[in-house]
Amino acid sequence: MPYAPYAALSETSRGRRYAEPRPAYRSEFQRDRDRIIHSAAFRRLEYKTQVFINHEGDLFRTRLTHSIEVAQIGRSIARALNLNEDLTEAIALAHDLGHTPFGHAGQDALNVCMKKFGGFEHNLQSLRVVDALEERYADFPGLNLTFEAREGILKHCSVKNARNYGELGKRFIEKKQPGLEAQLTNLADELAYTNHDVDDGLRYELIDLNALMEIDLFSNHYHDVVGKYPDLASRRCIHETVRRIINTMVVNLIENSSNVIKKASPADIDDVRNHREPLIAYSRELYDSLLQMKHFLRQQLYAHYQVKRMSRKAKEIIQSLFNVFMDDKYLLPPQYLEKVNTRDQDNSDDHKARVIADYIAGMTDRYALREHHRLFGPVEMPS
Ligand code: MG
């Protein structure tokens, strides 16, 4: 199937910040995806987590497996709607590159530390990773991705921050939309984590199956499964239920969005961008069920005392690392000290704080734990 006229097309891309010759055998968006896969930030996703600390269990989703699940779901939706699968995959694989160690707890802690210095926001950081922090190519800083990939990575942005992002920030000021590939990847992200958090939560017994039965989206499918396969082991019942929920949500998103797009009948991607509302959306009914499930997770899983304890530990680690480096920049590894010193004549703490935030945000969970131990752990006695 050819792409829909309103899909993001390689030929009409708004281009890269640094002009480059077209790739010989790949689309522009394939090249974006390939650069993301070869980045250091992408490899670090393996050792970063969203809700749970990496080493607490080998079966928890990591940010890497989460990103791959988002890409899988996103590509299915893109293909069914004749949208650009390559771009969707690129955005999905890059969407979490700017996350700190220790998931949301880490991001919140770093944001508090950075309050006086312009704040810290993982979406902006993902863009910063692909625009500046990856130092790999001879001709340009960052990965020099297309406008469309960068548009998808910058999911949210305050109006105040948007002014610093030129063309890319415009849509937040003018209240417009990104292309459909960006819209659908955003929903694929939510779809993926909602379902895998239920799955991980049940596996590690942080969620009570009986409590979850109050959530229609779960209980309807669960009863169907148990009715049809009464002898199935409970772990398989849960997996079969979760896969049915994912399927129901994906099908709903495809069918409902297809109708919404038909009604709006955009001629091209700029029509999509100028539309007041997103064109990728669930039906009202399914959206309400999803909200119910997310509310449940917030209450039962993200607020579970064991998760809270991990979050607390994470916060302490991030804060103490940030403070100790702000206090004495000579404790930083040489390559970061060098970055601090390039602009030290400003005599402003903003630059130093940003370099430290970049350093901390780039850490994996276990690297942060080790770095914390190196700086604050007990001194080993010589044997
Ligand atoms: Mg995500």
Task: Write a concise keyword list for the protein shown above.
383 residues, binds magnesium ion, mainly alpha, Hypothetical protein af1432
Give the overall silhouette: globular
CATH architecture: Orthogonal Bundle
Query: In percent, how much strand structure appears in the residues?
Result: under 5%
Bound molecules: magnesium ion
Count of alpha/pi helices: 19
Structural domain count: 1
- Main pleated-sheet profile: none
CATH third-level topology? Hypothetical protein af1432
What is the CATH superfamily label? Hypothetical protein af1432
Would you write up a description of this structure?
The chain is an all-alpha fold and 383 residues long. It has a single domain (10-305), classed as Hypothetical protein af1432, CATH 1.10.3210.10. It is built from 19 helices and no strands. It has helices at 28-37, 40-44, 63-80, 85-94, 103-113, 122-133, 147-153, 159-162, 166-173, 180-203, 209-212, 216-228, 234-264, 269-274, 284-300, 305-327, 334-342, 349-362, 365-376. Helix 3 (63-80) runs antiparallel to helix 4 (85-94) and helix 10 runs antiparallel to helix 13. The mean pLDDT is 93. Bound molecules: magnesium ion (MG). Residues 66, 95-96, 189, 193 line the site of magnesium ion. Magnesium ion binds next to helix 10.
